[in-house]
Design goal:
The protein has helices at 21-37, 41-46, 77-84; strands at residues 48-58, 64-67, 75-76, 87-99, 104-115, 127-138, 141-149. The protein is an alpha/beta fold and 157 residues long. The chain has a single domain, classed as Nuclear Transport Factor 2, Chain: A (Roll), CATH 3.10.450.50. The chain has a 7-stranded mixed beta sheet with strand order 3-2-1-7-6-5-4. The radius of gyration is 16 Å and the shape is globular.
Length: 157
Amino acid sequence: MQPRNEAAPGPAAPDFPLDTREDYIHFVEQRYFGAVRAADHDAVLATFAPDAKLVGYMGDAPARIMTLQPGPGEEPLTEFMQFAAHFELTYQDFVHFVDLDAHRVASHFTLLMVPRPGGLMAHMPGRMMRNCNFFQFRRGRLSDVIAYFSNPGGAGP
């Protein structure tokens, strides 16, 4: 029987077996967000397929497209990770919607970002965000991520 996260047949086993709802939730919360929180760049990169893409939206700003090997109009995914490393990150209040057959997870959660003392962003105030991410998996890794970032207190009067 072919594992559920095998979107296309192939000889190699998936890097991170994802067979149950709990496997996907563990991947999102621990492997991905846990590595981001720990500023473990190698572990974050290991969650992505080589041709993966992360598209981030914040308010009405232009979408940011990030990849491991950026082309025209794209940014290196590592820049996003370097920015996040300047903050103590707390992810909480997760709600996940898992589609096992399509290898997708939609997650909404609260993110508390507090600048690390003495760091490049230490002058910035902390912020609480309510985010929603859509994760697409291929062979046990992230192939596409769409991230919507909101800063409820940042809109002004």
